[in-house]
Amino acid sequence: MHILIIGAAGMVGRKLVARLLAEGEVGGRAITAMTLADVVVPPRPENPPFPIVATASDISTPHEAERLIAPRPDLIFHLAAIVSGEAEADFDKGYRINLDGTRLLFEAIRAQASYRPRVVFTSSIAVFGAPFPEEARDGATVDLPIPDSFHLTPLTSYGTQKAICELLLADYSRRGIFDGIGIRLPTICVRPGLPNKAASGFFSGIIREPLAGKPAVLPVPDSVRHWHASPRAAVGFLMHGATIDLEAVGPRRNLTMPGLSVTVAEQIEALRRVAGDAVAARIERVPDETIMRIVAGWARSFDASRATALGFRAETSFEEIIRVHIEDELGGTFVG
């Protein structure tokens, strides 16, 4: 099996490469070659057990997608994207990378005769936008979980770009051009490394920075609720998407992944329980109207029973998400 990973230099891409190297096979088929592509040359593992090519590639430029799929990879992970905050700030760049790049990839596959790879595409819960269903309970308004069947009315350019790509993926799959599955990722938390330009970055920052002994900025109220899963869970989603029987998935090829619906206050309380008061006290509240406006349009809770029934799994508590970060990124310790 030859695997192509587009977006391999990103956090999830690097973790996916590590998982593939550790397992050496996908769905019972041995990995025989791997191509890693991103706008910068992805890290190439040392002494890999099979040939690995790492290359710089922008799939939104002419002929790049054709170059990447020329070896006819059996499995393609398409992870590359401009994140939400950057796509909102730079309209042209967001559409060029997130939409045009994806369509060029799909078209490059279509141009190949007798070629039908598996395509695993990372979408986002940002494809959904307010107003969301709710009901009154005991004098209060309660959000109802969003099912896969909820209409796609994104309120950001990023969400719009992902929604269009979801429709393309379903249609190209229906036409037999490739076997595609869209993985709607929750917000990935806790993201390791430096902050990025995603509007959702603070969800990780208020956990990651305090555990490292650093102050963290919280730009939204404690009452903000969101949908989360760990990087470890995200890689698990991708691996399962690579092997799942797509006949069981059916024509609705885009799935909302399981996750946890928690408020910022619940995140902070989980941090306090895991790491103590001194760590939680490193969070500083600095309101940011732009981020609050973007986050206000995001869904807060999802019904992921369809994905769960198909075998996708995530954490069951936010404390577990924090402990995954401490184990995977901090060597089992943190700055108390």
TrEMBL record:
Lineage per the UniProt record: Bacteria, Pseudomonadati, Pseudomonadota, Alphaproteobacteria, Hyphomicrobiales
InterPro entries reported in the protein's UniProt record: DenD, Epimerase_deHydtase, NAD(P)-bd_dom_sf
Species of provenance: Methyloraptor flagellatus
GO molecular function, one term: oxidoreductase activity
Designated name of the protein: D-erythronate dehydrogenase
Highest taxon in the source lineage: Bacteria
NAD-dependent epimerase/dehydratase domain segment(s): 3-216
NCBIfam families: ErythonDh
This enzyme's EC code(s): 1.1.1.410
Keywords for this protein: Carbohydrate metabolism, NADP, Oxidoreductase
